[in-house]
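Input chain follows. Return structure tokens only.
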Amino acid sequence: MLRRADGYYAQFCLGIEVKDIQPKTGNEIGLDVGIESFYTDSNGYQEPNPRFLRQAESKIKQVQRRIYKKVKGSSGRKKARTVYAKKHLKVSRQRIEHAKRIARCVVKSNDLVAYEDLRVSNMVKNHCLAKSISDASWYLFRQWLLISCT
């Protein structure tokens, strides 16, 4: 059972082996992730960076201010916190879906995908770039690349 800001979810784990065999394309590609563009491939194509948090930031701040105007422990404050949590949940889901979609497209159109092995957890320690790196969700993208390849 999972609890999210918008409700409870039941999670089931099934042991099914799925084989998605794609025809060979003969293409090989190298990826370089960045902040200006989500990734740049070896062919020169640049995928634009969606910046989901930056777009939603003003609304999130507005909702966050509403929390502080409420009395601690009140039902109004709980409702305001729920609205705040839903805003962050939406950003999180947007990042996940974007990473899935882009990774699937890259894997389907190329036989070999090479990417740089970044230590994202160490890069996020830089306070100047942490928000932009987290907003780009490089780690999620890399995980979905690995999942899509197998």
